[in-house]
Design goal:
16 strands; Thrombin, subunit H; Rossmann fold; 35% strand; five-stranded mixed sheet; alpha+beta; single chain; elongated
Length: 400
């Protein structure tokens, strides 16, 4: 009886975590290419499925002198679909209709992002320097180099995990004025959009990871005096010998400059300036000291946070060339792309009254199917010429 109850409970849990839904999609048959029309109709049906669950619509209106001058409506769906199958197909002239049945992943599956095709691709990430807001707190050359040593340690950890293509640019400083280093999402977008986009374009990165070391000071600078009294107080544990560490990590989308993630990390531990480099970043005794171990733990937490922040992000590749129905993308086999992969095309648009603002991505309604994949670039075909959908260089190809 217990076994039967457990089996029923397991079956019920499966029903709760996954549900079967059906979606309808339509597509025009061009030049009698039924396979391409079927693929487009299936994709439209998948969108219909996704919007049936956890869809959200947001509208942003701009008013000037009481008159509506601009209105933007955004629709997004957080559904994850799997085991999609076409169960019905109907053709009427040049119009094809398909019905797709798919399994809707439960909350636990959606959180892991295993259902998304982009989870198997290696996004390209650039890591810049982490400047120290108050360099005088270091007090030694080893600690003064923390602005480069910390991101270098972050790069090494991310590269070792192999989930992303990680580019080290730790000698570059994203923020021109540390006093204006972002402290909120609003400031991130307003002050550093141009820097992020330019850097990402130069390095060919989809995301840019940067940060600021805000505090690296001693809790009590007088605790390390050289007098006999100071030494006696330290031996007796009557003074605070800890050193603080606080750093802020920020992740930006390289195509728009918009912030994706921002978090502060902080720790403190006993610090001793003597010993085999125990007080310096990346020195022989760094991880043997209490403070070094605490900071190492923070860097590990930063690594996990960056991975988590980017795990559910779509994979994006920049369009570099359009010739007829041939399209070249600035991403290839090193990112995990393969012949036969299909990417949705999005138009990247800017407006004359906001040329420095965030570009808007608009679904072009077409996809590219890759047929040639090289290490750093790939090419594929559209179901029509690029001019028919006004596809241009710097538009974006996306896998969700």
């Amino acid at each position: 009886m217990k076994l039967i109850v457990l089996l029923l409970f397991w079956l019920c849990a499966g029903v709760v975590n996954a549900a079967m839904l059906e979606g309808v999609g339509h597509a025009n048959i061009r030049e009698n290419n039924l396979d391409q029309a079927r693929a487009e109709a299936r994709q439209a049906a998948m969108r219909d499925l996704a919007l049936q669950y956890e869809a959200s619509i947001s509208t942003e209106d701009t008013l000037e002198n009481g008159k509506l001058t601009q209105s933007q409506t955004r629709l997004s769906a957080r559904a994850q679909l799997r085991n999609a199958t076409i169960i019905d197909e109907y053709r009427s002239g040049n119009l094809l209709r398909v019905i797709v049945r798919a399994e809707l992943a439960g909350a636990a599956d959606r959180a892991s992002c295993k259902a998304g095709d982009a989870s198997g691709l290696r996004k390209r990430v650039a890591v810049t320097g982490f400047p120290i807001t108050m360099p005088a707190q270091g007090g030694s050359q080893a600690l003064d180099d923390a602005g480069e040593k910390l991101p270098q340690a972050l790069v090494a950890r991310l590269q070792a995990q192999g989930r992303m293509q990680v580019l080290g640019a730790t000698s570059l400083q994203l923020f021109g004025n540390l006093a204006d280093a972002p402290t909120s999402q609003k400031n991130l977008t307003a002050n550093h959009l141009t820097n992020v986009v330019q850097l990402a374009r130069e390095l060919g990165a989809q995301f840019v990871v940067s940060g600021v070391i805000r505090d690296i000071g001693l809790s009590d600078p007088n605790a390390w005096g050289s007098s006999i009294t100071n030494r006696m107080q330290r031996r007796a544990g009557l003074v605070d010998t800890t050193r603080r560490f606080e750093a802020e990590v920020m992740v930006f989308d390289g195509f728009s400059g918009s912030p994706v993630f921002q978090q502060r990390f902080a720790t403190s531990a006993h610090w001793d300036p003597k010993g085999s480099g125990s007080g310096g970043f990346a020195s022989a005794g760094f991880e043997k000291s209490e403070w070094g171990q605490a900071v190492t733990g923070v860097i590990d937490d930063m690594t996990a946070a960056v991975n988590n922040a980017l795990a559910c992000q779509p994979f994006m590749a920049r369009v570099t060339r359009v010739e007829g129905d041939r399209v070249t993308l600035a991403s290839g086999a090193t990112a995990g792309l393969q012949p036969g992969d299909e990417l949705n095309i999005y138009r990247s648009q800017r407006y004359f009254d906001s040329l420095d603002g965030t570009p808007e991505l608009t679904d072009a309604g077409v996809s590219i199917t890759l047929d040639n994949v090289h290490p750093d670039f790939s090419t594929g075909r559209l179901p029509m010429t690029g001019g028919q959908v006004n596809l241009q260089r710097d538009d974006i190809a996306i896998i969700w």
